[in-house]
Q: What sequence folds into this?
């Protein structure tokens, strides 16, 4: 009897996932792709980001500043107040780091003091256009941000953040976590997105690295695609989790090697991005944020 109930539960979960997957219509997918092609195109130098200016990578001080300004203005255009978490710090070896995390708060409609943090890093390795890693994560986050702003009821606050200098010892996320602690934010959970533009086997699978089963389950219930559990922690995740924050990282199917072979290289270009996969994953994350806001 117990085995029968277990199988019934698995079948129910499977049916729920299939129904969710089918709810993304061709028209919705096309609309998401149209938005995200423009974002990824500008971030990777495929099209100009400002005037006639095209980015080559988002590693130098000047190109990171242009990117930060673009993200700041994008959030403003969504009707939310964008802010800059500027920092100028020195490590124990005397290395100086100067950068800016871009963030915005989307308030709850019921007066809650809890925050869900959703973010992605916007910089790249030197010489890399950084399409899959991580213009796709930025494009996903911007799309989900717009969906969050349109929710009629939000029983929790949201904070959207774009981290600077992930490629430089994760300075940006370290400084932002420090801000969260210093300002005593009541953080419910932190959701980080990376590597979401490659799907070689076309199964639209995602991979999750979660600090607890509740966060993982939230994504599994809304996914409608194969979901893999990552078992090896990442440095970025440890920045959050070691300080006591519940955290989850959403990526492509990295554990089975289904990831761009061009990461950190000059060939990590706009033309290598699977925009259908990016749209699918963006839709999943937007569904999770909607569910968590209830």
A:
């Amino acid at each position: 009897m117990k085995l029968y109930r277990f199988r019934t539960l698995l079948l129910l979960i499977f049916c729920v996932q299939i129904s969710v997957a089918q709810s993304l219509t061709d028209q919705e997918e096309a609309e998401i792709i149209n938005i995200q092609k423009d974002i990824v195109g500008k971030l990777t130098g495929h099209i100009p980001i400002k005037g006639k200016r095209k980015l080559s990578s988002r590693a130098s001080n000047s190109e990171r500043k242009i990117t930060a300004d673009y993200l700041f203005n994008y959030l403003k255009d969504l009707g939310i107040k964008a802010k800059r978490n500027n920092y100028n710090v020195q490590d124990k070896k005397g290395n100086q780091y100067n950068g800016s995390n871009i963030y915005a708060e989307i308030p709850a409609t019921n007066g809650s003091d809890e925050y869900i943090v959703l973010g992605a890093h916007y910089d790249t390795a030197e010489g890399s256009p950084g399409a899959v890693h991580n213009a796709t994560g930025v494009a996903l986050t911007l799309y989900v941000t717009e969906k969050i702003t349109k929710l009629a009821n939000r029983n929790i606050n949201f904070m959207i953040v774009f981290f600077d200098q992930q490629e430089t010892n994760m300075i940006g996320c370290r400084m932002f976590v420090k801000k969260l602690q210093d300002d005593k934010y009541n953080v419910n959970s932190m959701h980080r997105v990376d590597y979401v533009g490659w799907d070689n086997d076309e199964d639209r699978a995602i991979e999750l690295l979660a600090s607890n089963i509740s966060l993982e389950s939230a994504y599994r219930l809304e996914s409608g695609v194969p979901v893999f559990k990552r078992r090896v922690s990442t440095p970025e995740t440890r920045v959050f989790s070691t300080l006591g924050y519940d955290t989850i990282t959403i990526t492509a199917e990295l554990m089975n090697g289904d990831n761009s072979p061009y990461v950190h290289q000059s060939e990590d270009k706009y033309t290598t991005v699977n925009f259908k996969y990016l749209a699918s994953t963006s839709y999943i994350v937007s569904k999770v944020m909607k569910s968590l806001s209830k």
